[in-house]
Amino acid sequence: MSMTGKERAELRSEAHHLDVLVHIGHAGLTPTLLTSLDDVLRTKELVKVQVAKAGELTAKEAANEAAEQMGAEVVQVIGRTFTLYRENPELKKKGDLPPWRR
């Protein structure tokens, strides 16, 4: 699943206005955190994640590892914050698309 530059730019634009919904603490990518991240990706598709300063992982490492485990794409990494995207075709079927995809 590889995005074009144009698609990535559009998602970066949409992510700019999002609040951070998931925080990765000093424990890193725990199974509980990954479950929460999966839930948010399923309902929102586009999610902003912040990595704690005290953690062992850098934002880039956390983004790549989380994307691999979630089957998502890294949209961008800025400082300690990164954005992930994973399309959910079920949202389209239910007509429950996020506002930025309507």
TrEMBL record:
GO terms for molecular function: RNA binding. Residues 1-97 form the CRM domain. It holds the Pfam family CRS1_YhbY. It comes from the Bacteria. PROSITE patterns: CRM. Gene3D superfamilies: YhbY-like. Coiled coil: none annotated. Keywords: RNA-binding. PANTHER family: RNA-BINDING PROTEIN YHBY. This is CRM domain-containing protein. It comes from Gemmatimonas phototrophica. The lineage of its organism: Bacteria, Pseudomonadati, Gemmatimonadota, Gemmatimonadia, Gemmatimonadales.
